[in-house]
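Honest question from a wet-lab person: if I give you the sequences of every part of a complex, can you actually get the arrangement of the whole thing, not just the pieces? Trying it with mine:
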Amino acid sequence: MSELIRRYGTSLTWIIIAFTAFWLLVLVLIPNFVLFEFSFKPYLPVDQLGGPKDFYSLNNYWTFFTSPIHIRIFFQTVLYSSAVTILCLLLSYPLAYFLAKVVDAKTAPSIFLLLIIPLWVSEILRSFAWFIILAYNGPLNALLQGIGLEPVRWITGFNAVIIGLIYSYLLFMLLPIYNAISSLDTNQIEASEDLGASLWRTHWRVVIPHSKPGIASGCVMVFMLCAGSVIVPSTLASPSSRWFTEIIQQWMFEGLDWNTGAAYAFLLLALCIIFVSLVMRVLNVRLVDIAK
Amino acid sequence: MNSHRFGHYAIRAYVVLFIAFMLLPLVVMGGAAFNNTRFPSIFPWFGFTTHWFEELWADGRMWGAARNTVFVAIAVVALSVPIGTAGAILLNSLQARSRSIIYGIMVAPILTPGAVIGISTLLFWYKFNVPAGLHLSVLGQVSYIAAYVMLLVLARLQSFDAGLEEAALDLGASHAQVVRRILLPHLYPAIFAGALIGFFQSAENFNVTLFTRGNSDTLTVYVGSKIRSGITPTINALAFLLIAATVMGVIIYEIRRRRADALTKAAED
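Yes, you can. This is the full assembly:
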Protein backbone atom coordinates (compact mmCIF):
# COMPACT_ATOMS: atom_id res chain seq x y z
CA MET A 1 0.00 0.00 0.00
CA SER A 2 2.71 2.49 0.92
CA GLU A 3 4.57 1.17 -2.09
CA LEU A 4 1.57 1.94 -4.29
CA ILE A 5 1.43 5.52 -2.97
CA ARG A 6 5.15 5.97 -3.62
CA ARG A 7 4.84 4.66 -7.16
CA TYR A 8 1.52 6.11 -8.28
CA GLY A 9 0.73 8.93 -5.83
CA THR A 10 -2.18 9.24 -3.39
CA SER A 11 -5.06 9.96 -5.76
CA LEU A 12 -4.25 7.14 -8.19
CA THR A 13 -3.79 4.74 -5.30
CA TRP A 14 -7.25 5.62 -4.04
CA ILE A 15 -8.73 5.07 -7.49
CA ILE A 16 -7.06 1.66 -7.70
CA ILE A 17 -8.31 0.70 -4.25
CA ALA A 18 -11.81 2.03 -4.96
CA PHE A 19 -12.14 -0.01 -8.18
CA THR A 20 -10.91 -3.16 -6.52
CA ALA A 21 -13.09 -2.65 -3.46
CA PHE A 22 -16.16 -2.08 -5.63
CA TRP A 23 -15.43 -5.31 -7.46
CA LEU A 24 -14.68 -7.52 -4.49
CA LEU A 25 -17.23 -6.12 -2.05
CA VAL A 26 -20.19 -4.96 -4.15
CA LEU A 27 -19.98 -7.50 -6.96
CA VAL A 28 -18.55 -10.61 -5.26
CA LEU A 29 -18.53 -10.88 -1.47
CA ILE A 30 -21.65 -9.05 -0.26
CA PRO A 31 -23.97 -10.53 -2.94
CA ASN A 32 -22.86 -13.97 -1.80
CA PHE A 33 -23.51 -13.08 1.85
CA VAL A 34 -26.94 -11.78 0.84
CA LEU A 35 -27.59 -15.06 -0.98
CA PHE A 36 -26.57 -16.91 2.17
CA GLU A 37 -28.76 -14.75 4.40
CA PHE A 38 -31.76 -15.01 2.07
CA SER A 39 -31.51 -18.79 2.17
CA PHE A 40 -32.35 -18.84 5.90
CA LYS A 41 -35.41 -16.59 5.66
CA PRO A 42 -38.96 -17.62 4.77
CA TYR A 43 -40.58 -16.43 1.59
CA LEU A 44 -43.06 -13.72 2.57
CA PRO A 45 -45.20 -11.13 0.81
CA VAL A 46 -43.72 -7.63 1.03
CA ASP A 47 -46.11 -6.39 3.77
CA GLN A 48 -45.04 -9.18 6.13
CA LEU A 49 -41.30 -8.51 5.82
CA GLY A 50 -39.97 -7.62 9.27
CA GLY A 51 -43.15 -8.99 10.84
CA PRO A 52 -43.43 -11.85 13.33
CA LYS A 53 -43.02 -14.52 10.65
CA ASP A 54 -39.74 -13.01 9.38
CA PHE A 55 -37.09 -14.98 11.30
CA TYR A 56 -34.08 -17.13 10.44
CA SER A 57 -34.58 -20.87 10.15
CA LEU A 58 -33.27 -23.91 8.36
CA ASN A 59 -36.65 -24.50 6.71
CA ASN A 60 -35.48 -23.88 3.15
CA TYR A 61 -32.70 -26.43 3.53
CA TRP A 62 -35.15 -28.73 5.28
CA THR A 63 -37.25 -28.58 2.07
CA PHE A 64 -34.29 -30.03 0.21
CA PHE A 65 -33.32 -32.69 2.72
CA THR A 66 -36.89 -33.98 3.03
CA SER A 67 -37.43 -34.26 -0.70
CA PRO A 68 -36.14 -37.61 -2.00
CA ILE A 69 -36.65 -36.42 -5.58
CA HIS A 70 -34.51 -33.31 -5.12
CA ILE A 71 -31.82 -35.28 -3.32
CA ARG A 72 -31.76 -37.85 -6.11
CA ILE A 73 -31.51 -35.12 -8.78
CA PHE A 74 -28.68 -33.49 -6.80
CA PHE A 75 -26.67 -36.69 -6.67
CA GLN A 76 -27.40 -37.51 -10.30
CA THR A 77 -26.04 -34.08 -11.20
CA VAL A 78 -22.89 -34.78 -9.15
CA LEU A 79 -22.50 -38.26 -10.63
CA TYR A 80 -22.94 -37.30 -14.27
CA SER A 81 -20.86 -34.13 -13.91
CA SER A 82 -18.03 -36.24 -12.48
CA ALA A 83 -18.42 -38.77 -15.30
CA VAL A 84 -18.24 -36.02 -17.92
CA THR A 85 -15.17 -34.54 -16.19
CA ILE A 86 -13.36 -37.90 -16.28
CA LEU A 87 -14.35 -38.56 -19.90
CA CYS A 88 -13.14 -35.10 -20.92
CA LEU A 89 -9.83 -35.78 -19.15
CA LEU A 90 -9.37 -39.14 -20.93
CA LEU A 91 -10.29 -37.66 -24.31
CA SER A 92 -8.14 -34.52 -23.92
CA TYR A 93 -4.90 -35.87 -22.48
CA PRO A 94 -3.62 -37.75 -25.57
CA LEU A 95 -4.44 -34.85 -27.84
CA ALA A 96 -2.91 -32.28 -25.48
CA TYR A 97 0.29 -34.34 -25.34
CA PHE A 98 0.34 -34.80 -29.10
CA LEU A 99 -0.15 -31.10 -29.79
CA ALA A 100 2.38 -30.02 -27.17
CA LYS A 101 5.19 -32.49 -27.80
CA VAL A 102 4.76 -34.53 -31.00
CA VAL A 103 3.41 -32.29 -33.72
CA ASP A 104 5.79 -29.63 -35.03
CA ALA A 105 5.45 -26.15 -33.59
CA LYS A 106 4.03 -24.72 -36.81
CA THR A 107 1.04 -27.04 -37.21
CA ALA A 108 -0.16 -26.92 -33.60
CA PRO A 109 -1.51 -23.33 -33.77
CA SER A 110 -3.46 -24.18 -36.94
CA ILE A 111 -5.05 -27.22 -35.30
CA PHE A 112 -5.94 -25.11 -32.27
CA LEU A 113 -7.50 -22.50 -34.48
CA LEU A 114 -9.79 -25.18 -35.94
CA LEU A 115 -10.61 -26.65 -32.54
CA ILE A 116 -11.66 -23.38 -30.94
CA ILE A 117 -14.13 -22.44 -33.70
CA PRO A 118 -17.03 -23.93 -31.66
CA LEU A 119 -16.02 -21.76 -28.68
CA TRP A 120 -16.89 -18.62 -30.64
CA VAL A 121 -20.35 -19.96 -31.37
CA SER A 122 -22.38 -19.66 -28.20
CA GLU A 123 -22.97 -22.61 -25.89
CA ILE A 124 -26.67 -22.61 -26.56
CA LEU A 125 -26.15 -23.07 -30.29
CA ARG A 126 -23.64 -25.85 -29.65
CA SER A 127 -26.15 -27.88 -27.69
CA PHE A 128 -28.84 -27.03 -30.24
CA ALA A 129 -26.59 -28.58 -32.91
CA TRP A 130 -26.61 -31.86 -30.98
CA PHE A 131 -30.37 -31.62 -30.59
CA ILE A 132 -30.58 -31.77 -34.40
CA ILE A 133 -27.96 -34.49 -34.79
CA LEU A 134 -29.38 -36.82 -32.13
CA ALA A 135 -33.05 -36.49 -33.10
CA TYR A 136 -34.64 -39.87 -33.84
CA ASN A 137 -35.17 -38.88 -37.48
CA GLY A 138 -31.92 -36.96 -37.53
CA PRO A 139 -28.74 -37.25 -39.57
CA LEU A 140 -26.90 -39.59 -37.18
CA ASN A 141 -29.59 -42.25 -37.35
CA ALA A 142 -29.86 -41.73 -41.11
CA LEU A 143 -26.13 -42.46 -41.28
CA LEU A 144 -26.50 -45.57 -39.12
CA GLN A 145 -29.32 -46.85 -41.30
CA GLY A 146 -27.26 -46.05 -44.37
CA ILE A 147 -24.57 -48.49 -43.22
CA GLY A 148 -27.16 -51.10 -42.34
CA LEU A 149 -27.57 -50.54 -38.58
CA GLU A 150 -30.67 -50.03 -36.50
CA PRO A 151 -31.56 -46.44 -35.53
CA VAL A 152 -30.88 -45.59 -31.89
CA ARG A 153 -33.05 -43.50 -29.61
CA TRP A 154 -30.26 -41.17 -28.48
CA ILE A 155 -32.21 -38.65 -26.41
CA THR A 156 -33.07 -40.99 -23.57
CA GLY A 157 -31.86 -41.09 -19.98
CA PHE A 158 -28.78 -38.90 -19.58
CA ASN A 159 -27.15 -39.99 -22.89
CA ALA A 160 -27.76 -36.84 -24.87
CA VAL A 161 -27.00 -34.59 -21.90
CA ILE A 162 -23.63 -36.31 -21.43
CA ILE A 163 -22.75 -35.99 -25.12
CA GLY A 164 -23.78 -32.31 -25.12
CA LEU A 165 -21.79 -31.55 -21.96
CA ILE A 166 -18.66 -33.24 -23.30
CA TYR A 167 -18.94 -31.34 -26.57
CA SER A 168 -19.54 -28.01 -24.83
CA TYR A 169 -16.76 -28.21 -22.24
CA LEU A 170 -14.06 -30.47 -23.74
CA LEU A 171 -11.86 -27.53 -24.70
CA PHE A 172 -11.85 -26.24 -21.11
CA MET A 173 -9.96 -29.46 -20.31
CA LEU A 174 -7.74 -29.52 -23.39
CA LEU A 175 -6.34 -25.99 -23.17
CA PRO A 176 -4.97 -26.02 -19.58
CA ILE A 177 -3.48 -29.51 -19.99
CA TYR A 178 -1.86 -28.44 -23.26
CA ASN A 179 -0.38 -25.37 -21.55
CA ALA A 180 0.98 -27.47 -18.70
CA ILE A 181 2.57 -30.11 -20.96
CA SER A 182 4.04 -27.41 -23.21
CA SER A 183 6.08 -26.11 -20.29
CA LEU A 184 7.71 -29.52 -19.75
CA ASP A 185 11.28 -29.77 -21.01
CA THR A 186 11.26 -32.33 -23.84
CA ASN A 187 14.71 -33.50 -22.67
CA GLN A 188 13.06 -35.00 -19.61
CA ILE A 189 10.82 -37.17 -21.78
CA GLU A 190 13.78 -38.25 -23.92
CA ALA A 191 15.88 -38.98 -20.85
CA SER A 192 13.13 -41.17 -19.47
CA GLU A 193 12.89 -43.05 -22.78
CA ASP A 194 16.68 -43.39 -23.07
CA LEU A 195 16.82 -44.89 -19.62
CA GLY A 196 14.44 -47.58 -20.78
CA ALA A 197 11.12 -46.48 -19.37
CA SER A 198 8.07 -47.72 -21.24
CA LEU A 199 5.61 -45.30 -22.81
CA TRP A 200 3.19 -45.71 -19.87
CA ARG A 201 5.92 -45.25 -17.31
CA THR A 202 7.21 -42.10 -18.95
CA HIS A 203 3.72 -40.62 -18.87
CA TRP A 204 2.93 -41.84 -15.35
CA ARG A 205 6.19 -40.69 -13.77
CA VAL A 206 7.23 -37.68 -15.88
CA VAL A 207 4.51 -36.08 -18.00
CA ILE A 208 1.46 -36.49 -15.74
CA PRO A 209 3.16 -35.24 -12.55
CA HIS A 210 4.34 -32.19 -14.45
CA SER A 211 0.89 -31.48 -15.93
CA LYS A 212 -0.97 -31.79 -12.61
CA PRO A 213 -1.80 -28.06 -12.38
CA GLY A 214 -3.32 -28.19 -15.87
CA ILE A 215 -5.28 -31.35 -15.05
CA ALA A 216 -6.55 -29.78 -11.82
CA SER A 217 -7.54 -26.61 -13.64
CA GLY A 218 -9.37 -28.53 -16.37
CA CYS A 219 -11.20 -30.79 -13.92
CA VAL A 220 -12.36 -27.90 -11.74
CA MET A 221 -13.61 -25.86 -14.70
CA VAL A 222 -15.36 -28.75 -16.44
CA PHE A 223 -17.05 -29.99 -13.27
CA MET A 224 -18.23 -26.51 -12.32
CA LEU A 225 -19.54 -25.80 -15.82
CA CYS A 226 -21.34 -29.17 -15.96
CA ALA A 227 -22.95 -28.99 -12.52
CA GLY A 228 -23.98 -25.39 -13.17
CA SER A 229 -25.07 -25.90 -16.75
CA VAL A 230 -28.55 -24.64 -17.54
CA ILE A 231 -28.60 -24.80 -21.31
CA VAL A 232 -27.39 -28.30 -22.11
CA PRO A 233 -29.72 -30.17 -19.72
CA SER A 234 -32.72 -28.14 -20.84
CA THR A 235 -32.00 -28.54 -24.56
CA LEU A 236 -31.03 -32.22 -24.58
CA ALA A 237 -33.05 -33.56 -21.67
CA SER A 238 -35.25 -36.60 -21.90
CA PRO A 239 -38.20 -37.02 -19.52
CA SER A 240 -36.03 -39.07 -17.16
CA SER A 241 -33.04 -36.74 -16.99
CA ARG A 242 -33.36 -33.76 -14.71
CA TRP A 243 -30.59 -31.45 -13.58
CA PHE A 244 -30.16 -29.58 -10.31
CA THR A 245 -30.12 -26.18 -12.02
CA GLU A 246 -33.62 -26.93 -13.35
CA ILE A 247 -34.91 -27.22 -9.78
CA ILE A 248 -33.28 -23.87 -8.95
CA GLN A 249 -34.99 -22.33 -11.98
CA GLN A 250 -38.33 -23.76 -10.82
CA TRP A 251 -38.02 -22.04 -7.45
CA MET A 252 -36.89 -18.75 -9.01
CA PHE A 253 -39.30 -18.53 -11.96
CA GLU A 254 -42.26 -20.85 -11.37
CA GLY A 255 -42.47 -21.12 -7.59
CA LEU A 256 -41.36 -17.50 -7.26
CA ASP A 257 -39.90 -18.54 -3.91
CA TRP A 258 -36.55 -16.75 -4.10
CA ASN A 259 -35.57 -17.80 -0.59
CA THR A 260 -35.75 -21.52 -1.27
CA GLY A 261 -34.11 -20.78 -4.62
CA ALA A 262 -31.26 -19.08 -2.73
CA ALA A 263 -30.87 -22.13 -0.49
CA TYR A 264 -30.65 -24.43 -3.52
CA ALA A 265 -28.22 -22.08 -5.27
CA PHE A 266 -26.10 -22.08 -2.13
CA LEU A 267 -26.05 -25.89 -2.16
CA LEU A 268 -24.76 -25.76 -5.73
CA LEU A 269 -22.07 -23.27 -4.69
CA ALA A 270 -21.10 -25.45 -1.71
CA LEU A 271 -20.81 -28.45 -4.04
CA CYS A 272 -18.38 -26.56 -6.27
CA ILE A 273 -16.32 -25.34 -3.30
CA ILE A 274 -16.05 -28.90 -2.00
CA PHE A 275 -15.02 -30.16 -5.43
CA VAL A 276 -12.33 -27.48 -5.81
CA SER A 277 -10.84 -28.28 -2.37
CA LEU A 278 -11.00 -32.01 -3.11
CA VAL A 279 -9.11 -31.61 -6.39
CA MET A 280 -6.53 -29.34 -4.75
CA ARG A 281 -6.04 -31.91 -1.97
CA VAL A 282 -5.85 -34.98 -4.22
CA LEU A 283 -3.54 -33.44 -6.83
CA ASN A 284 -1.63 -31.39 -4.27
CA VAL A 285 -1.85 -28.08 -6.15
CA ARG A 286 -2.55 -24.51 -5.03
CA LEU A 287 -5.27 -22.14 -6.23
CA VAL A 288 -2.61 -20.06 -7.98
CA ASP A 289 -1.75 -23.08 -10.16
CA ILE A 290 -5.39 -23.74 -11.01
CA ALA A 291 -6.29 -20.25 -12.13
CA LYS A 292 -3.54 -19.88 -14.72
CA MET B 1 9.34 -50.48 -34.90
CA ASN B 2 6.06 -51.69 -36.38
CA SER B 3 4.10 -50.99 -33.20
CA HIS B 4 5.68 -47.55 -33.14
CA ARG B 5 4.40 -46.98 -36.67
CA PHE B 6 0.97 -48.15 -35.65
CA GLY B 7 0.93 -45.76 -32.69
CA HIS B 8 1.96 -42.99 -35.03
CA TYR B 9 -1.03 -43.58 -37.31
CA ALA B 10 -3.41 -44.21 -34.42
CA ILE B 11 -2.73 -40.83 -32.80
CA ARG B 12 -3.04 -39.05 -36.15
CA ALA B 13 -6.39 -40.75 -36.79
CA TYR B 14 -7.42 -39.69 -33.29
CA VAL B 15 -6.59 -36.05 -34.01
CA VAL B 16 -8.64 -36.14 -37.21
CA LEU B 17 -11.59 -37.73 -35.38
CA PHE B 18 -11.30 -35.16 -32.60
CA ILE B 19 -11.38 -32.25 -35.06
CA ALA B 20 -14.33 -33.86 -36.88
CA PHE B 21 -16.17 -34.24 -33.57
CA MET B 22 -15.67 -30.56 -32.82
CA LEU B 23 -16.56 -29.23 -36.28
CA LEU B 24 -19.15 -31.56 -37.88
CA PRO B 25 -21.96 -30.46 -35.52
CA LEU B 26 -21.43 -26.91 -36.76
CA VAL B 27 -21.64 -28.11 -40.38
CA VAL B 28 -24.91 -29.91 -39.62
CA MET B 29 -26.33 -26.88 -37.84
CA GLY B 30 -25.27 -24.46 -40.57
CA GLY B 31 -26.44 -26.78 -43.34
CA ALA B 32 -29.92 -27.06 -41.81
CA ALA B 33 -30.34 -23.31 -42.31
CA PHE B 34 -30.78 -23.93 -46.05
CA ASN B 35 -33.15 -26.91 -45.86
CA ASN B 36 -36.70 -26.22 -46.95
CA THR B 37 -38.46 -27.79 -43.95
CA ARG B 38 -39.99 -26.42 -40.78
CA PHE B 39 -38.14 -28.76 -38.44
CA PRO B 40 -34.41 -28.00 -38.66
CA SER B 41 -32.46 -30.93 -40.05
CA ILE B 42 -30.16 -31.74 -42.94
CA PHE B 43 -31.77 -35.10 -43.59
CA PRO B 44 -33.99 -35.71 -45.44
CA TRP B 45 -33.21 -32.83 -47.77
CA PHE B 46 -36.27 -30.94 -49.04
CA GLY B 47 -34.48 -28.54 -51.31
CA PHE B 48 -32.42 -25.38 -51.01
CA THR B 49 -33.99 -22.22 -49.64
CA THR B 50 -32.94 -18.87 -48.22
CA HIS B 51 -36.39 -18.45 -46.69
CA TRP B 52 -35.11 -18.83 -43.11
CA PHE B 53 -32.64 -15.99 -43.55
CA GLU B 54 -35.46 -13.75 -44.74
CA GLU B 55 -37.55 -14.74 -41.73
CA LEU B 56 -34.60 -14.01 -39.42
CA TRP B 57 -34.06 -10.64 -41.07
CA ALA B 58 -37.73 -9.74 -40.49
CA ASP B 59 -37.69 -10.81 -36.83
CA GLY B 60 -37.86 -7.60 -34.81
CA ARG B 61 -37.36 -9.35 -31.49
CA MET B 62 -34.09 -10.84 -32.74
CA TRP B 63 -32.78 -7.39 -33.73
CA GLY B 64 -33.70 -5.97 -30.34
CA ALA B 65 -31.96 -8.87 -28.62
CA ALA B 66 -28.87 -8.44 -30.81
CA ARG B 67 -28.73 -4.74 -29.97
CA ASN B 68 -29.04 -5.52 -26.25
CA THR B 69 -26.26 -8.08 -26.49
CA VAL B 70 -23.89 -5.51 -28.01
CA PHE B 71 -24.82 -2.84 -25.45
CA VAL B 72 -24.35 -5.23 -22.53
CA ALA B 73 -21.02 -6.46 -23.90
CA ILE B 74 -19.71 -2.90 -24.37
CA ALA B 75 -20.80 -1.96 -20.83
CA VAL B 76 -19.18 -5.11 -19.43
CA VAL B 77 -15.89 -4.35 -21.19
CA ALA B 78 -16.00 -0.68 -20.11
CA LEU B 79 -16.30 -1.77 -16.46
CA SER B 80 -14.22 -4.96 -16.44
CA VAL B 81 -11.11 -3.52 -18.03
CA PRO B 82 -10.45 -0.72 -15.48
CA ILE B 83 -11.58 -2.90 -12.56
CA GLY B 84 -9.50 -5.90 -13.59
CA THR B 85 -6.44 -3.74 -14.34
CA ALA B 86 -6.71 -1.93 -11.00
CA GLY B 87 -7.12 -5.28 -9.25
CA ALA B 88 -3.98 -6.68 -10.87
CA ILE B 89 -1.90 -3.60 -9.98
CA LEU B 90 -3.12 -3.71 -6.38
CA LEU B 91 -2.51 -7.45 -6.09
CA ASN B 92 0.98 -7.06 -7.49
CA SER B 93 1.92 -4.65 -4.70
CA LEU B 94 0.71 -6.93 -1.89
CA GLN B 95 2.84 -9.28 0.16
CA ALA B 96 2.59 -13.04 0.49
CA ARG B 97 -0.31 -13.65 2.87
CA SER B 98 -2.75 -10.87 2.05
CA ARG B 99 -1.85 -11.44 -1.59
CA SER B 100 -3.04 -15.03 -1.62
CA ILE B 101 -6.28 -14.19 0.24
CA ILE B 102 -7.18 -11.34 -2.14
CA TYR B 103 -6.15 -13.49 -5.08
CA GLY B 104 -8.50 -16.24 -3.90
CA ILE B 105 -11.44 -13.82 -3.68
CA MET B 106 -10.63 -12.43 -7.13
CA VAL B 107 -10.57 -15.77 -8.96
CA ALA B 108 -13.51 -17.26 -7.03
CA PRO B 109 -16.12 -15.86 -9.47
CA ILE B 110 -14.47 -17.77 -12.33
CA LEU B 111 -15.04 -20.99 -10.40
CA THR B 112 -18.62 -20.08 -9.40
CA PRO B 113 -21.56 -21.39 -11.47
CA GLY B 114 -23.23 -18.63 -13.48
CA ALA B 115 -26.61 -19.42 -11.93
CA VAL B 116 -25.23 -18.66 -8.46
CA ILE B 117 -23.68 -15.37 -9.64
CA GLY B 118 -26.96 -14.42 -11.31
CA ILE B 119 -29.14 -15.19 -8.28
CA SER B 120 -26.83 -13.53 -5.76
CA THR B 121 -26.63 -10.39 -7.91
CA LEU B 122 -30.42 -10.33 -8.27
CA LEU B 123 -31.00 -10.71 -4.51
CA PHE B 124 -28.33 -8.19 -3.51
CA TRP B 125 -29.82 -5.39 -5.63
CA TYR B 126 -33.36 -6.45 -4.72
CA LYS B 127 -32.44 -5.49 -1.16
CA PHE B 128 -31.83 -1.94 -2.39
CA ASN B 129 -35.06 -2.00 -4.44
CA VAL B 130 -33.17 -2.13 -7.74
CA PRO B 131 -35.37 -4.15 -10.12
CA ALA B 132 -34.02 -6.87 -12.38
CA GLY B 133 -32.88 -5.83 -15.82
CA LEU B 134 -29.90 -5.81 -18.14
CA HIS B 135 -28.04 -3.38 -15.82
CA LEU B 136 -27.89 -6.23 -13.29
CA SER B 137 -26.76 -8.64 -16.03
CA VAL B 138 -23.87 -6.24 -16.68
CA LEU B 139 -22.86 -6.15 -12.99
CA GLY B 140 -23.15 -9.94 -12.64
CA GLN B 141 -21.02 -10.55 -15.70
CA VAL B 142 -18.41 -7.99 -14.64
CA SER B 143 -17.88 -9.91 -11.38
CA TYR B 144 -16.21 -12.80 -13.24
CA ILE B 145 -15.07 -11.17 -16.50
CA ALA B 146 -13.00 -8.65 -14.48
CA ALA B 147 -11.19 -11.70 -13.08
CA TYR B 148 -10.12 -12.74 -16.59
CA VAL B 149 -8.80 -9.23 -17.24
CA MET B 150 -7.02 -9.31 -13.87
CA LEU B 151 -5.29 -12.62 -14.69
CA LEU B 152 -4.12 -11.38 -18.10
CA VAL B 153 -2.81 -8.06 -16.73
CA LEU B 154 -1.19 -9.80 -13.75
CA ALA B 155 0.72 -12.12 -16.11
CA ARG B 156 1.84 -9.12 -18.13
CA LEU B 157 2.99 -7.29 -14.99
CA GLN B 158 5.47 -10.10 -14.29
CA SER B 159 7.59 -8.89 -17.21
CA PHE B 160 7.38 -5.24 -16.16
CA ASP B 161 10.55 -3.55 -15.00
CA ALA B 162 9.60 -1.33 -12.04
CA GLY B 163 12.99 0.36 -12.45
CA LEU B 164 11.54 2.26 -15.42
CA GLU B 165 8.98 3.89 -13.12
CA GLU B 166 11.71 4.80 -10.63
CA ALA B 167 13.79 6.36 -13.38
CA ALA B 168 10.84 8.40 -14.66
CA LEU B 169 10.00 9.62 -11.14
CA ASP B 170 13.63 10.53 -10.51
CA LEU B 171 13.69 12.51 -13.73
CA GLY B 172 10.73 14.53 -12.51
CA ALA B 173 7.73 12.85 -14.17
CA SER B 174 4.41 13.11 -12.36
CA HIS B 175 2.60 10.00 -11.12
CA ALA B 176 -0.05 10.40 -13.82
CA GLN B 177 2.67 10.61 -16.46
CA VAL B 178 4.33 7.46 -15.15
CA VAL B 179 1.07 5.55 -15.48
CA ARG B 180 0.13 6.96 -18.86
CA ARG B 181 3.54 6.85 -20.52
CA ILE B 182 5.22 3.81 -18.92
CA LEU B 183 2.89 1.44 -17.10
CA LEU B 184 -0.16 1.44 -19.40
CA PRO B 185 1.77 1.13 -22.69
CA HIS B 186 3.41 -1.98 -21.26
CA LEU B 187 0.01 -3.39 -20.28
CA TYR B 188 -1.82 -2.58 -23.54
CA PRO B 189 -1.49 -6.06 -25.11
CA ALA B 190 -3.03 -7.65 -21.99
CA ILE B 191 -5.71 -4.96 -21.72
CA PHE B 192 -6.62 -5.37 -25.38
CA ALA B 193 -6.78 -9.17 -25.07
CA GLY B 194 -8.89 -8.76 -21.92
CA ALA B 195 -11.31 -6.44 -23.68
CA LEU B 196 -11.69 -8.89 -26.58
CA ILE B 197 -12.22 -11.92 -24.34
CA GLY B 198 -14.58 -9.91 -22.14
CA PHE B 199 -16.69 -8.85 -25.10
CA PHE B 200 -17.18 -12.40 -26.36
CA GLN B 201 -17.62 -13.89 -22.89
CA SER B 202 -20.37 -11.37 -22.29
CA ALA B 203 -22.01 -11.95 -25.67
CA GLU B 204 -22.22 -15.69 -25.10
CA ASN B 205 -23.26 -15.52 -21.46
CA PHE B 206 -26.54 -17.24 -20.69
CA ASN B 207 -26.66 -18.29 -17.04
CA VAL B 208 -26.00 -14.95 -15.33
CA THR B 209 -28.23 -13.12 -17.79
CA LEU B 210 -31.11 -15.58 -17.38
CA PHE B 211 -31.53 -14.79 -13.69
CA THR B 212 -30.88 -11.04 -13.82
CA ARG B 213 -32.43 -9.88 -17.10
CA GLY B 214 -35.98 -9.05 -15.93
CA ASN B 215 -38.03 -8.90 -19.13
CA SER B 216 -35.24 -7.95 -21.52
CA ASP B 217 -33.71 -10.24 -24.12
CA THR B 218 -30.18 -10.84 -25.17
CA LEU B 219 -29.32 -12.97 -28.17
CA THR B 220 -28.58 -16.08 -26.10
CA VAL B 221 -31.79 -15.71 -24.09
CA TYR B 222 -33.74 -15.16 -27.31
CA VAL B 223 -32.31 -18.35 -28.81
CA GLY B 224 -33.03 -20.19 -25.57
CA SER B 225 -36.69 -19.18 -25.55
CA LYS B 226 -36.99 -20.06 -29.26
CA ILE B 227 -35.63 -23.53 -28.61
CA ARG B 228 -38.19 -24.02 -25.86
CA SER B 229 -41.21 -22.49 -27.54
CA GLY B 230 -40.95 -23.64 -31.11
CA ILE B 231 -37.91 -24.41 -33.17
CA THR B 232 -37.65 -23.12 -36.69
CA PRO B 233 -34.55 -23.03 -38.87
CA THR B 234 -34.28 -19.27 -38.33
CA ILE B 235 -32.05 -20.23 -35.40
CA ASN B 236 -29.92 -22.20 -37.82
CA ALA B 237 -29.76 -19.17 -40.08
CA LEU B 238 -28.48 -17.12 -37.12
CA ALA B 239 -26.01 -19.89 -36.25
CA PHE B 240 -24.82 -20.04 -39.86
CA LEU B 241 -24.07 -16.31 -39.83
CA LEU B 242 -22.13 -16.58 -36.56
CA ILE B 243 -20.17 -19.60 -37.81
CA ALA B 244 -19.43 -17.88 -41.12
CA ALA B 245 -18.15 -14.79 -39.29
CA THR B 246 -15.95 -16.97 -37.05
CA VAL B 247 -14.52 -18.95 -39.96
CA MET B 248 -13.74 -15.72 -41.82
CA GLY B 249 -11.97 -14.39 -38.73
CA VAL B 250 -10.00 -17.63 -38.39
CA ILE B 251 -8.95 -17.59 -42.06
CA ILE B 252 -7.81 -13.96 -41.89
CA TYR B 253 -5.90 -14.64 -38.67
CA GLU B 254 -4.23 -17.72 -40.17
CA ILE B 255 -3.20 -15.92 -43.36
CA ARG B 256 -1.68 -13.06 -41.38
CA ARG B 257 0.12 -15.51 -39.10
CA ARG B 258 1.61 -17.43 -42.05
CA ARG B 259 2.62 -14.19 -43.72
CA ALA B 260 4.34 -13.01 -40.53
CA ASP B 261 6.09 -16.39 -40.27
CA ALA B 262 7.27 -16.15 -43.86
CA LEU B 263 8.53 -12.62 -43.26
CA THR B 264 10.58 -13.58 -40.22
CA LYS B 265 11.94 -16.56 -42.13
CA ALA B 266 12.91 -14.36 -45.06
CA ALA B 267 14.57 -11.95 -42.65
CA GLU B 268 16.56 -14.82 -41.11
CA ASP B 269 17.73 -16.01 -44.55
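Two things worth pointing out. Residues 107 and 181 of chain B are 29 Å apart (CA to CA). Residues 234-268 of chain B form the longest helix (35 residues).
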